């Protein structure tokens, strides 16, 4: 078990670690989890699609697919479901653009600081940072639920 797995098993270790850092470091932590799981990671990438500009927090390329993740540090519990729904829709739209001319399928994802568990909104997994490693290690279990663009 790597460093990420050990942190994940400790009483909310990754989630607590992420909560205490600036958003840039939260993104770096998420990128590190992808890297530990064998993904080639690009962070904070801006792409132009004609006159349309889109930013991607994390683009993690694996051998069979690419995960494009948006990192969200929502505070409080009010409106989290509607925030997740809006974020999922926006991330799916960004992934549609990213897919243009790309031979690999794109999986849109939202990564949060929450600890409420993994959920799926409109085919987009919403994964707490503390569960990201587990999710990546068992992504096949979500095969019928997650959207591939």
Question: What does this protein structure show overall?
Answer:
- The protein is of the alpha/beta class.
- The chain has one domain: Trna Endonuclease, Chain: A, domain 1, CATH 3.40.1350.10.
- It is 36% helix and 30% strand.
- It contains 5 helices and 6 strands.
- A 6-stranded mixed beta sheet has the order 1-2-3-4-6-5, with helices on both faces.
- Strand 5 and strand 6 form a beta hairpin.
- The protein is globular.
- Mean pLDDT is 85; it is low at 6-12.
Strand content: 25-35%
Task: Give the strand line-up of the largest sheet.
Answer: 1-2-3-4-6-5
Return residue spans where pLDDT drops below 50 for at least 5 consecutive residues. Answer: 6-12
Integer average pLDDT:
85
How many strands, which pairing sense, and closed or not: the largest β-sheet?
6 strands, mixed
The radius of gyration computed from the alpha-carbon positions, rounded to a whole number of angstroms, is 14 Å
- Please count the helical segments: 5
Which fold does the CATH topology refer to?
A: Trna Endonuclease, Chain: A, domain 1
Structural class: alpha/beta
- CATH architecture classification name: 3-Layer(aba) Sandwich
Distance between the termini: 31 Å
Multimeric status of the protein: single chain
CATH class: Alpha Beta
**Order of helices and strands, N to C?**
HHHEEEHEEEH
What overall form do the CA principal axes indicate? Answer: globular
Helix content: 25-40%
Number of discrete domains? 1
The total beta strand count reads 6
């Amino acid at each position: 078990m790597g460093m990420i797995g050990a942190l994940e098993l400790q009483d909310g270790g990754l989630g607590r670690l992420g909560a205490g850092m600036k958003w840039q470091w939260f993104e770096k932590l998420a990128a590190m989890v992808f890297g530990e799981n064998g993904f080639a990671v690009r962070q904070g990438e801006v792409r132009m699609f004609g006159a349309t500009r889109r930013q991607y927090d994390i683009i993690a390329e694996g051998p069979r697919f690419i995960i494009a993740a948006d990192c969200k540090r929502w505070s409080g519990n009010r409106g989290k479901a509607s925030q997740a729904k809006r974020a999922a829709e926006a991330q799916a739209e960004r992934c549609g653009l990213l897919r243009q001319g790309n031979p690999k399928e794109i999986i849109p994802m939202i990564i949060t600081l929450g600890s409420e568990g993994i959920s799926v909104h409109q085919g987009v997994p919403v994964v707490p940072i503390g569960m990201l490693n587990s999710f990546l290690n068992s992504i096949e279990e979500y095969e019928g639920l997650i959207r591939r663009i």
